[in-house]
């Protein structure tokens, strides 16, 4: 399985990757994107099975990445990992086609529950 | 005019959650003694702004030792490993991003959160901002400060609610 982790913070990408391992989802191929445009490009070139994306990123934000993917026909599983976990943001994420939104700060248990919810 | 912002208790809960989740529960955040300040050494500052139904800025100020230790723990490195300035700035920015995002969720929406601004030194606040909440804390024996500032030109919804009640 290939997972794309998109976040403009290298530190946060490392935390997300470490938390995946702590949640019992280690051992997957990881691809990293440092902004939204790179995430969009890497979904097209790397064909990941899952995208874990920050919301607030330079070049293109996460919701625009997701909207572009769905508009182009991509149905890749997509979840947000973001500091903004309000009901309004969760509703926007779901409406755009996200499978889940994990709010920062998070725990391995939160990752486990979110990924189990999409059968991973 | 009463400016709206998160309560001390809410802000403390947000900061505590961020610190314990990513920096470990072994060193709790404690209230600082009055007039502790941030010391005379190098200070890192970070800020993120919220714009929309609520307009404000969240700032984090920490001494270099806290920034270095936080970066080590966030990256899962052993104490004393070499850190790049970019990684420290990244970690400090992510701290204010998480605190700012959670503060945004506590305030009226819709609104947008900016990307974090990080400086080695201090960041001067715009003159149209007024401090509405401030935490002076210590972590692992070192001081840190988290502040929330709101714009004066924003109607105070809390006051409106009281008047209409």
UniProtKB/TrEMBL annotation, chain A:
The UniProt record lists the keyword Endoplasmic reticulum: no
Positions of modified residues (4-aspartylphosphate): 54
InterPro entries: CheY-like_superfamily, Sig_transdc_resp-reg_receiver, ST_Response_Regulator
Tagged with keyword Phosphoprotein: yes
Response regulatory domain mapped to chain residues: 2-119
Top-rank taxon, per record: Bacteria
Pfam families: Response_reg
Keywords recorded for this protein, A-Z: Phosphoprotein
One GO biological process term: phosphorelay signal transduction system
Protein name, per record: Two-component system, chemotaxis family, response regulator CheY
TrEMBL record, chain B:
Pfam families noted in UniProt: CheX (PF13690)
SUPFAM superfamilies xrefs: CheC-like (SSF103039)
UniProt-listed GO biological process terms: chemotaxis
Keywords: Chemotaxis
Domain spans labelled Chemotaxis phosphatase CheX-like: 46-122
Protein name: Chemotaxis protein CheX
Organism: Nocardioides psychrotolerans
